[in-house]
Structure formats: structure tokens, C-alpha cells
Amino acid sequence: MAKPKPLNVALIGSGFMGRTHSNAYLKVAKFFKTPYEPVMHSVCSLEPTLGVFADQWGWQNHGSDVDAIFNSDEIDLVDLVTPNHLHAPHAIAALEAGKHIACEKPLAGTLDDARAMMQAAKKAKKAKSFCWFVYRRVPAVAMAHQMVKEGKLGRIYHVRAAYLQDWGGPETPLLWRFKGKQAGSGAHGDLNAHIIDMARFITGEEITEVTGAIKETFIKQREIIESGGKNSISAKSGSKSKKKRYGKSTVDDALLFLARFKGGACASFEASRLATGDKNANRIEIHGEKGALRYNFERANELEWYDNTLSGREQGWSTINVTRGDDGHPYVGNWWPAAHIIGYEHTFVNMAADMLSVIGNKKPVVPICDFKDAYETQRVLEAAVLAADNRCPVKLSEVK
Ligand code: SOE
Questions:
Q1: Of 66, 260, 256, 50, whose CA–CA distance to 163 is shortest?
Q2: Which DSSP helix (H) or strand (E) runs through 63?
Q3: CA-based Rg of the chain, rounded to a whole angstrom?
Q4: How many A from CA of 73 to the centre of ligand 1?
Q5: Counted domains in the chain
Q6: Is 101:181 a contact under the CB 8 Å cutoff?
Q7: Domain containing 103: what range?
Q8: Segment 40-53 mean pLDDT
Q9: Does the beta carbon of 190 sit less than 6 angstroms from any atom of ligand 1?
Q10: 204 CA to middle of ligand 1, Å?
Q11: What pTM does this model have?
Q12: Are residues 255 and 375 in the same domain?
């Protein structure tokens, strides 16, 4: 492969995802050969500590003027790690300025915004679009996709997915993630978005109906923290000095729904930020005619496999340690030898590598999520909210 060409990247936002994305741009060229090498050109946000962030991660320029990013001929790729309500205006401005666009998940806080983003990406001539559904790039999840595609499971009967965290207790202040106008939804858009995408990606099938859903906001009021305070999910309220003020949480803390896939599989999805004891339990199980798979991100390098085609005496759940690049396990050959496991941050580097490949008209290791693909997940998110609000089944054909 020819020497990679420079690709000037501008990051908009600088929180938790700002760190994972900055780390990805810093590391990708060290571990992957891609047609382009990212140049960490500019980072833009309103955070008072942006200068410290830029120096820490090696961003060449920093500022608070997003329009300067869209108007700059130097910028090739705009990457959004902003609150959900800002995804659409920023992504559409970047696409209309002819820039490639990458956006954290979910695509948007609302279906209307997501549709506008999908349509802008469709109109863009050369610009490529990406949505950071990074769990597709966990080697074990990528392998699950490959095994289903190879027919190892046969007809799919069940998908059972849950993404459970427990950071959303009463001590967690009123972050943007709890404000409906900024986030769109709570645990649902944040966590069900991931497992809907993973289920679609692994099965290769679309969801045709949400047959039932339930949602709940357990913590109705949360402490308002002064601006400039830690805005991340690890922020804790409890300022001693001033009288505490509280604001209404206007999103779900949990949303569960049942769904049917195009091939007839019956599925359940559950997202919660109050699943006490589960810190980042992103779990999915798929049961097919010829076999079954089980995955839990809290054991990130392991994929459980049940081969139903063996003789009864030999059948049993096996655990595959998906770290053997020499044996064809995806991505890990770019990292370390067998059983030298990888982690959360590596999924973002894997994603950056595939984005750079696609921008260079090369194929990604496994399918990558563009705005059109991410819009399908947003439709399912919307159908589940409609099913919960109206207490009735919702067909995806009715949610455009
Ligand atoms: C918070 O729930 C969060 O940071 C999600 O927003 C990420 O997508 C997930 O990977 C980890 O948890």
C-alpha cells in the first residue's frame, strides 16, 4: 500500500467520547495500514478546559467557533461527540461543506433529526458518513457476525439483548443525558441503540415490528450542577456550599421492548441505567436452529458458542477467546499475540481504521455503520417509544 495521505480531522466536543476518539486518532496509524493517516487538526467545544484537553491529546488547534470548522478548506473529516440535539445541525453543515462526517451514537435524539442527517448524507456527492456504533468492532462481536453470515446458526429463533449500567442513581446530577430536549431519550437512545445495532449487525436482519414496550423514569428530580462542573457520567452531585437546586429528568431511566425480526425471530431488548451492580453489561444471546451464541462486554474478549450440529454426547457451551489473529479472528492481528487481550479503547481504534479505509475506497473488516444504516436503528428506537407511550404494537413500516 502506498504511503498514507494525511486526513485533517476536526473533533467537535471533548467529553468522555472526546477522549476515546482522540485516542483512536492518535493510535490508528501505529497499528493499522490505511489509505489515510489522521492529522489531529482542530478540536472545538465550549468547555472552559478545552486548551488543556487539546494539549493533552495533541490537537494542533482549538477553539469554540464551529462555523470556522465547516468553512475551513483544511478540514477533511468532521467528528461529532456533542450532545444528541447538536448532531443534526453540525452533521448537515459539515456534509453541505463537502466534508466527511462521523457522529457518535445514537445518530440523533429524534427521528426527524436522524432523517434529515440521512438525507443530507444521501445528497452528498463524495463525502462519506459514519456513526460510531463501535461494538461491531469488538473482535468477538465481529466474529459473531461472521459466523451467522457463514450460516453456522441457521434459522434464527431468538435474540435476547440487554445493555445494563447502574450509574443513573439519585446521586447523579441533571446531566444533558437526562434532558429530553438535548438527549431525545435516556437509557433507550444511549444503550438500546447499541444493542439494536448489534442485533441487526449480527443477524443481518431488520426488525419489522415492536410488539410491546415499557419505559420508566425512576428518578424524577436530579440536582442541577453549575456549568463548568464535571459533565461526564461519573459526575456526582453533593456540592456542600450552596443550597441545592433540582430539575426534572425528562427521559427514561429504563426501556424494555419485544420485537420481531424479518426472518421471524422473536426478540427482547432491555436498557437500564439503574441495573444495580451491572456497570457496563452489554449482553446479547442469539439462538438458532444449528447453534447459539452468547456475548457479554464485561468479558469482552470471549464469545460463547453452542454447536447444535455435534452429536448429543459432544454438545456443550464452549468459550472462544477471540484473540487469535493468526487463526483469523478479526482485528486482533493488528494488536497483540493470542490471549494478550484488548479492551474498550481498541474498539474505537478499530473503527477509526475502518473509517479511513472506507474514505480511501477500501473495504472495512466488517460492515461499518453509515447514516443510512444508523437511521434504521433510529426507526426502531422510535417504534419502541411509540409502543411504550401508546401501549400498542408498532410496525416499522409505519415509522419512516
Ligand atoms: C454511557 O452510557 C456510555 O458512555 C455510552 O454512551 C457509550 O456508548 C457506551 O459505550 C458506554 O456507556
A1: 256
A2: strand 61-63
A3: 21
A4: 32
A5: 2
A6: no
A7: 5-134
A8: 97
A9: yes
A10: 23
A11: 0.96
A12: yes
